[in-house]
Amino acid sequence: MVVFDRPKALSDVPLHYCPGCTHGIVHRLVAEAIDDLGVVDKTVGIAPVGCSVFAYNYFECDMIEAAHGRAPAVATGVKRTNPDTVVFTYQGDGDLAAIGTAETVHACARGENLTIIFINNCIYGMTGGQMAPTSMPGQVTTTSPYGRDRKIQGSPIRVCEMLSTLDGVAYAERVSVDCPKNVLHAKKAIKKAFQNQIDKKGLSIIEVLSTCPSNWGKSPIESLEWLRNEMMPYYPLGVYKDIDAKEEDK
Amino acid sequence: MNKVTFNVDRCKGCGLCVTVCPKKIISLSSTNLNQKGYHPAEITDMSKCIACAMCATMCPDTVIKVEKE
């Protein structure tokens, strides 16, 4: 009996990501969710700019490449003109929380019926490790060589908390992929985010705490430890909004 | 016997599977190199495998296939 195999919605090609990069795990979780719901034929993915710019090569569904940060705007167009499609965007922190903040916030404010997968790894990966809006205080990057200083660069943005205040958001959860337990939980959250869209509940955003071993200058295993020790206290995991939740759970 | 197969040439030798295996039977090969030039992960003692698939859950490159007998 096969316990674990490559999901069908994930193309059988090598990923270009660095060794230990958790983008690969999240790609697989998205593909598993698409497989589980049986919607690969009507799914349209929107790829961002950033490390995951080639995401369009890795999924068996239709994919569109958006300009930097504009994935939610493109997704809005696709979803409004083809309401029967299942549309997801896959965006990094530089894409969603920096150049694409306006598109993201307003797609959430309008309550577009979309699924947003947001990879938060505290850094700009593809361009060579610059400081992102989500970089941790004190974190050394190529554009903050003495560490991020709150007095100069401000504090990191907690995206889930910020977006959960908007009425259009149906579901906002922050998950992590640092250990098998959290990966399995992340899969559930991603699947629910797709299910919400199929049920026409509104916008679902899943923030995934992720690693960037190359630009953090750490080994893949040290990176996961850094994620647990440094990122998780500042970015607590959990559900920030769920319109399905019963009153007593809130 | 439970069976774990690695798509060796896709492995990037990151070692995440090594750390999560509860039976500690995965190691990075010290002798072999794959097509990409990495030391790929391999199983040292297949008879101890419990087919929990934790290695496959953590693998970023979907290298691992797990079969239970």
Note down, in words, how this protein is organized.
The complex is a heterodimer of chains A (250) and B (69). Chain A has helices at residues 23-37, 71-81, 93-99, 101-110, 150-153, 159-163, 180-198, 213-216, 220-234; strands spanning 2-4, 43-47, 62-65, 86-92, 115-120, 123-124, 130-131, 169-176, 203-209, 238-242. Chain A has 250 residues and is of the alpha/beta class. Chain A has a single domain (23-249), classed as Rossmann fold (3-Layer(aba) Sandwich). In chain A, strand 6 (123-124) and strand 7 form a beta hairpin. Chain A is globular, with a radius of gyration of 17 Å. Chain B has one domain (3-67): Alpha-Beta Plaits (2-Layer Sandwich). Chain B is an alpha+beta fold. Chain B starts with a strand and ends with a strand. Chain A binds chain B through residues 1-6, 10, 14-15, 17-25, 28, 179-180, 183-184, 213, 219-221, 224, and chain B through 10, 12-16, 19-20, 38, 51, 53-54, 56-62, 64-69.
Features:
heterodimer; A: 250 residues; alpha/beta; two-stranded antiparallel sheet; 9 helices; 10 strands; B: 69 residues; Alpha-Beta Plaits
**Major sheet summary line of chain A:** 7 strands, mixed
Poorly predicted segments of chain B: none
Biggest sheet strand line-up of chain A: 3-2-4-5-9-8-10
CATH class of chain B: Alpha Beta
Question: SSE layout and pairings?
Answer:
The complex is a heterodimer of chains A (250) and B (69).
Chain A (H helix, E strand, L loop, with lengths): L1 E3 L18 H15 L5 E5 L14 E4 L5 H11 L4 E7 H7 L1 H10 L4 E6 L2 E2 L5 E2 L18 H4 L5 H5 L5 E8 L3 H19 L4 E7 L3 H4 L3 H15 L3 E5 L8
Parallel strand pairs in A: 2-3, 2-4, 4-5, 5-9, 8-9
Antiparallel strand pairs in A: 6-7, 8-10
Helix pairs in contact in A: 1-7, 3-4
Chain B lengths: L2 E4 L9 H5 L5 E3 L12 E3 L10 H5 L5 E4 L2
Antiparallel strand pairs in B: 1-4, 2-3
Summarize the structure.
With 250 residues, chain A is of the alpha/beta class.
